[in-house]
Amino acid sequence: MTFKYNNPSHSKKVVSAVLAGMMALSAGGAAMAAESTDTGQGQTATASNTAAPTGLFSDIKVGYWAEKHVYKLAYQGILLGNNGLFRPGDAVTQQEAVTMAIRFMNKENQLNDSTATALPTNMEVGNYFKPYVALALQLGLIDKTEESTVDVSKTSWGQKPASREWITKLLIRSLNKDAEAKAQNNQSTGFADNDSISESGKGYINLAVSLDLAKGVDGNKFNPTGSVTRAQLATFFSRGETLTDTKYPNTSTGYVTGLKDGQITLVVDGKAVNFAVNSSTPYFTKDSESRASSTDVKLYTKVQIVGATGTASYVEVVDATPQVESVEGTFARSLSGNKIGLFVGENYETYGYDEATAFIDQNGNAIKLSDITADSIIEVQRETFSADKKTVVIRVKSGIVNKSDSGVVSEVTTSAKTIKLTNAAGTTEQYTYNDNLIIRYQDRILSLAELKAGSAVKYTVKDSILQTIELSQGVEQSLRGTLVEIGGNQSTLTFKREGGSLEAKLLAEKPEVIINGIQDATLNDLITDATNGDQVELTLNSEDRVTRIQVIGRQMEPMNGVSVVSYNSKTKVLTVLDSNKKPFVFTLDDKTKLDYNTSKPTLAGLESLLNDGRKLDLTYVGTRALSVKVIYKYEGTISSIDTSGKKISLLSGNQTIAVPYSTVPTIEIYNKSGASLSDLKIGDSVTVTLGSNQDYVQKVALNTVAQFEVVSVETNGRVRVKSDSLTSQFYVDQAVLTGESGQTITASQLTSGNLINVTFEGMTPKAVQVVKRTLAEVTSVDASSVTLKLFNGQSETVPVSGSVKVVKSGSTLTTLGSLTVGDRVEMTKDTDNSTRFRVLTVMSKQFWSYDGVGNQILVKRESTSDTNYRFALGTGAFVHQGDNTLSVQSLKDNDNIVLYLLNNVVLEIQKQ
């Protein structure tokens, strides 16, 4: 069998300088391009020297393990066949391997026929190969001294099959890593047949293994004298192309901007190039050896096409992620200079377009720019694979609409003046509104604030502007005003609207009262006064009864650091002096909020402390005392600790307070027993508790914030939590609790799985904030933002400023670059307000069954010793196949699934 080569004078510049990629010198590993062999008589065979025809090689069938790589190199003209055969299982000769290394390094332009006569006498090669071998000696790809000792008694040097060790040396030297390899020659390779490897070859094999270029064979052997097949080395060169920027004359890599029947359009180096395709065009993807389908080629993905004169002979998807970004806004008008103007939110922006930009309507039909009317909602898609970010598609999402329909309100966005509705057909629509919008329920006109998500409505639209919305049933509404009076039997409420008119409302039974800082507030905690009453937001149900009263402002005045002059327990009159020794008189009543060093203060308990000279903080309206606090503690940051003078100084507000101590005070720090003064430092936020006479420090509590996951909540206010798999518990009945949006909540509203930030005063929880948890897939990331695909299918771009933490594979990193597209993450705020992303662990398994009682899934064991086959399901775990949401009960035995876990709890299941 002979093979014919291209004439060197017409040789193409093929593969370039970097020999890299995966080379498993065992079966299925790296490979070499096919070349012809010399006849040994100075004559070469006369087979055609053109690239492989469309039919390729009859001995490379569809599905052959190296089909992808052989096809690509054949269409690139890098390898040739003979009479329609490639002979993939034939061993590669040394002269063939050297020739391909020269071509791979793009050194054919340095071939010189005159130097070929200088080959050592024992290095007999075919005439065609002589210039290649001579150049290889000059470049140091083969060592003249080493080759002089080769046994050529049975076959010539050139026809000698290339061994695995010899090929490894050739590859490492082609990588210009000869010195690195030699530095490892005194190290064992770790293979069982290490003694069979030459001393001069061990360093090359060590380096090749560390670079993932070489691997062993069965039995942890390297088999240094084993041969390398043509298919194996062809695969090597094909994979090596991904690590080089060499430009091939008939190979184009770019981004797909057009897909038509029989044609693919690529943008290559800023220019659009069309390639014809047909039913015989082979398609592949980067990460698979098997053939793909033409449908795997998507718009704006990165693709490599091999083929001359506009015809694609080979297509490979290099990166399947579409390189586009989308902006949605309201079309304003077309501008000169091929630009359009649109409103994105409240901002006016312009976008350019060119002759390649596609204009389409809601149904994907081609339209002209002139067909788009003002105020239409449009989506602008721009490619992100060039600095120009050219506009590739302008799509109308909703044009001018005139209609009447019924549906449900989904969202009201006052900043953008838009309302989303889900119509009777189940389609989500969004319309703008103006000040002329009429909202009514029966014969009552409602305000926009009374229109809530979930309301069933009928609506009319004219010129895409909402004209009327009529509620089908009563809904909650909100009103604001000044609280004037609560009826004697607490069944009515009188308030003054923000407009100034008095209005009375019936109270629902046991209305909710929300006052910041007062746990379980009641109607008695409200301040009623025609002038200085509480500013409140009232929530009314569909029957127009008040169900919720939230205090949003109080007119009270503070007076801090006053000294008691006298208190009359009969008249409840308190006389005090302010810091300027000016007297004031206040009256206490059963509504006055009391605070002294006890968890359940009473007026009787306070009265015993109101002796001459006692220091107080109070708030008041007129002569009515709204709150009285006996100063028993100070909050601030430590400015100094004087152990010799026994004094602690705090910066509290805008003043420095120095508090002495007679004996070393108790130091209380959460999660630290036996704390002492040495555990405190300047700048720490602390609460200093005073003794009974307000004259010395009794306790110093360090104010800290810790983050936990709620395990369970008990009715007595005790919360069980875990952090880093450690479980603890504490009471939150005296703490201020707020939800994700800052709203006041009760302990019973905490649920298992909530992430909470707890502010401790020493060992005592003083505040609990529910932390928002966003679970999503990373779809793009840059230095200042992350785009996430949420479990509901919506996309959200999150700007990230300030510090960031990425917890991934057990390490905490501090740059967004640590995230990769496809990562599943939990996004939260840490205790220091930094944005934190915890990357979920990924496992590929086969489904077995679902345990509904324990809310667990069971997967197939990988072996009899595998004990990691049962996984807990997180609350609301997302189960899906593509964009279709599934139930866990729909999974079947042997389904291939991917699990995404956080702390060994499954949060997402993706069915393959």
Task: Please describe what this structure looks like.
The protein has 912 residues and is mainly beta. Helices cover 9% and strands 40% of the residues. The chain has nine helices and 54 strands. The strands form eight sheets. Strands 31, 32, 33, 34, 35, 36, 37, 38, 39, 40 and 41 form an eleven-stranded mixed β-sheet that branches. Helix 2 packs across helix 3 and helix 2 packs parallel to helix 5. The chain starts with 66 loop residues before the first helix and ends with a strand. Mean pLDDT is 84; it is low at 1-54. Keywords: Signal. Residues 53-115, 188-251 form the SLH domain. Pfam families: SLH.
Through-space gap between termini: 47 Å
Shape: globular
Structural class by secondary-structure content: mainly beta
Our Rg estimate from Cα atoms comes to: 39 Å
Largest sheet: 11 strands, mixed
On the 0 to 100 scale, the average pLDDT is: 84
Total E-strand runs = 54
Tell me the strand percentage band. Answer: 35-45%
Helix fraction by DSSP (H/I, runs of at least 4): under 10%
Low-pLDDT parts are: 1-54
**Alpha plus pi helix count:** 9
Quaternary state of this entry equals: single chain
